[in-house]
Design a protein that fits this description.
Blueprint lengths: L1 H10 L3 H82 L6 H22 L8 E9 L2 E7 L12 E3 L4 H8 L3 E3 L20 E6 L4 E7 L5 H41 L1
Antiparallel strand pairs: 1-2, 1-6, 2-3, 4-5, 5-6
Helix pairs in contact: 2-3, 2-5, 3-5
Length: 267
């Protein structure tokens, strides 16, 4: 068999080998060309698939973001609707204060309404489940602010005892400048002074001046939104009406007391 093949190859002309080599090269070129062409088509197909996957991922992210925004807007709408519903009985109670002829009864009702408003506000500003807030009313006494009313979240011993310096506190700055202050992280504020006796987790703070001598503070664990600011300002107006009624009642009590003394001295 080997001699037979050798005999055939010996009889082939010399140009046959050259032509065979050229044909072999052409076959290789065609093979590699087709391979490269197929690989390029596969690469383009893979790139198209990957681009489509990226577009799908981007659309998914945009859809997720749109759903998140819609859920937040729904929560905000529900929050505002609840707040408006809760404001109605508070306003009715405020208007009813003037109907109490007994001035001491009116003073008790003023204190009750102030506490009720704080508790309602701390509940109304919760947008998401698990949110924690606390509210307080501070009254200026000389160079200090005295905590007089507080919602749950404050220690029971704080009302009537906890004090802030008016020149070294964020609430004091709010009262001095007569403008609302919103701080996302109180530890970064120059007027913040740490209370070493407290391990409070609250970091966000909104202060609203109620009058020239009263300030409303709202503490939150997480940064609070613009909607919470608006609710705080709205309740600030209500507290202003409450404390104005308190001032009027105190003045009437003082007037009645002076009249009684004058009558007693005249007798």
């Amino acid at each position: 068999m080997d001699s037979f093949l050798k005999g055939i190859l010996d009889k082939l002309p010399p140009w046959f080998y050259s032509v065979s080599a050229v044909l072999f090269l052409l076959v290789l070129i065609i093979f590699f060309g087709m391979t490269l062409f197929g690989a390029s088509r596969i690469t383009r197909a893979m790139h198209s698939i990957m681009s489509r996957d990226r577009r799908i991922e981007q659309l998914h992210d945009r859809l997720h973001e749109a759903i998140r925004r819609a859920e937040r807007q729904e929560n905000v709408a529900s929050q505002l609707a609840t707040a408006c519903g809760n404001l109605s009985p508070l306003l009715h109670q405020l208007n009813a204060l003037r109907s109490h002829l007994n001035l001491m009864t009116r003073m008790n009702e003023i204190e009750s309404l102030s506490q009720r408003c704080l508790d309602t506000l701390s509940s109304d500003i919760k947008v998401s489940a698990g949110g924690r807030h606390r509210c307080a009313l501070w009254v200026q006494q000389d160079e200090e602010l005295l905590l007089v009313f507080a919602s749950s979240g404050f220690p029971k011993t704080h009302p009537g005892n906890r004090r802030l310096h008016i020149h070294r506190s964020i609430a004091g700055r709010c009262l001095r400048k007569r403008q609302m202050i919103h701080v996302d992280d109180v530890t970064e504020d120059d007027d913040w002074e740490p209370n070493h006796d407290s391990k409070s987790p609250y970091r966000s703070l909104i202060c609203v001046p109620v009058s020239t001598w009263v300030v409303l503070t709202v503490d939150g664990i997480q940064p609070m939104s613009r909607e919470v600011e608006l609710l705080c300002e709205l309740y600030g107006v209500i507290f202003e009406g409450i404390f104005q009624e308190q001032v009027n009642t105190v003045q009437r009590l003082a007037g009645d007391h002076m009249g009684e003394e004058a009558n007693a001295s005249g007798a």
